[in-house]
Design goal:
mainly alpha, about 90% helix
Length: about 100
């Protein structure tokens, strides 16, 4: 004796499937909403970081433009050494007089 599936059983099965599918869609919709919120926050954070990086680049450029080179310092120290030697020589000459 084979069991016969009634129309009511098919209908009940379809209703159960529809409810399950609807619940899944509600969950997916909530997840998508959360993702949209997270993306919005990330966009804001990236914008803030971009501004910070631009400020840092400006500061680095300014600092770089004001830095002296080793060659410049070597020249200045050599000039100072020469001037000090001249001053010492004058003092020695004045002391001999």
């Amino acid at each position: 004796m084979a069991e016969e599936i009634t129309t009511r059983e098919i209908f009940d099965t379809l209703v159960g499937f529809a409810k399950s599918t609807e619940e899944n869609f509600v969950i997916v919709k909530a997840d998508i909403s959360d993702l949209k919120t997270d993306v919005g926050v990330l966009k804001t954070d990236v914008a803030v970081l971009k501004i910070s990086v631009e400020k840092l680049e400006t500061n680095v450029t300014r600092i770089d433009s004001q830095m002296v080179t080793k060659h410049y310092l070597d020249d200045k120290l050599a000039n100072l050494r020469g001037e000090l030697i001249q001053i010492i020589d004058r003092k020695i000459q004045l002391a001999r007089i």
